[in-house]
Structures are given as C-alpha cells and as structure tokens.
Specification:
With about 160 residues, this protein is mainly beta. The protein has one domain (about 5-135): Jelly Rolls (Sandwich), CATH 2.60.120.10. Helix content is about 10%, strand content about 40%. The chain contains one helix and eleven strands; from the N terminus they run H-E-E-E-E-E-E-E-E-E-E-E. The protein has one helix at about 10-30, and strands at about 40, 50-60, 65-70, 75-80, 90-95, 95-100, 105-110, 115, 120-125, 130-135, 145. The strands form two sheets. Strands 1-2-3-10-5-8 form a six-stranded antiparallel β-sheet, with helices on one face. The chain starts with 10 loop residues before the first helix and ends in an 11-residue tail after the last strand.
Length: about 160
C-alpha cells in the first residue's frame, strides 16, 4: 500500500476520473509529465466535491524544491489546509480557481500567480476545470494541517 492509497480514489471511479481529465488536458493541447497521477479524495469518499488530482514532477527534499500539477474539476475543492514549513506559489496554467485564504476570496485565472507563505490557510475550487502549477518547498510528512479533522493530518500532501 502506497503512502497516498488511503486518500486516493480507486477502481472504476479512478479510471473514469482519469479518462475525463486526460480528455480535458488533450482538449487544452497540453502534455503532462509521465508520472502516475494521484486522484485524491482526502479519505472523505466524495471526490467530485472534495478532491484534486496531482502529478508530482519533483519533490527534491535535499535540493529544497517541489513541483506539482494540480487539476480540479468544476466545483471540486482542495480543502482548507495550511503548511507550517512549506512555502508555495500557485500559477494557473488553464482555467480559473476561486482561492479562499484567511484574507478572503480571490479569483485566479489563466496566467495568474499567488504566493502562499507558511502558516497561511487556504483552499481552492475549480471555476470550470482548472490546471494549476505548484512550485514550492518540498512536501514533507507532517506538514499538512486540515480544517476538516476527518482528514488525516500531516502526511498526505
């Protein structure tokens, strides 16, 4: 069992979601890295509402950087969370997202960037399908803290 298995969707639901995502990515004329996508439901069992799909390009802990693509469907939300150590920068590659932070809501569209320092709670929701590039410090076990206590803390994303 991999470290993300408990928070990923599996079986037919996984295959259907990945087919839809691949079709959207192809429609946009993009190519994603040849790594295993991680369709996450955060262990809540409601992927289409609370979830995202990640492609980890790099998680170079010794070199101090991480790069991921994050895909959300229309209305799908990456849930409210923060990192104590990780500093993130989000860049919207395609589509748009509604980003909620402690300061309020902001809409980010294709080409927009938002910096998220450590200790800054946030969540984002697709306004239509959206693809986001996350450039950040490494993702480390024990540094993700979720507002919804049903989500296992620390070592998920």
């Amino acid at each position: 069992m991999g470290k993300h298995d408990a928070v990923m969707i599996h079986g037919q639901e996984r295959e259907q979601a990945l087919r839809e995502i691949r079709a959207q990515i192809e429609h946009w004329g993009l190519t994603l890295p040849d790594v295993e996508p991680l369709p996450l439901d955060f262990g809540l069992g409601d992927f289409r509402t609370i979830g995202e799909t990640e492609w980890w390009i790099a998680n170079e802990t010794e070199a101090g950087y991480c790069g991921k693509f994050l895909f959300v469907f229309d209305g799908q939300t990456c849930p409210w969370h923060e990192h104590r150590v990780k500093h993130e920068t989000f860049f919207v590659v395609k589509g748009a997202i509604a980003m909620r932070t402690a300061e309020g809501m902001v809409t980010l569209s294709q080409g927009d960037t938002l910096v998220m320092p450590p200790g800054s709670p946030h969540e984002f929701t697709g306004i239509g399908p959206a693809l986001v590039l996350e450039a950040s410090m490494p993702s480390i076990v024990g540094d993700s803290f979720f507002g919804d206590k049903r989500i296992g803390g620390g070592g998920i994303i």
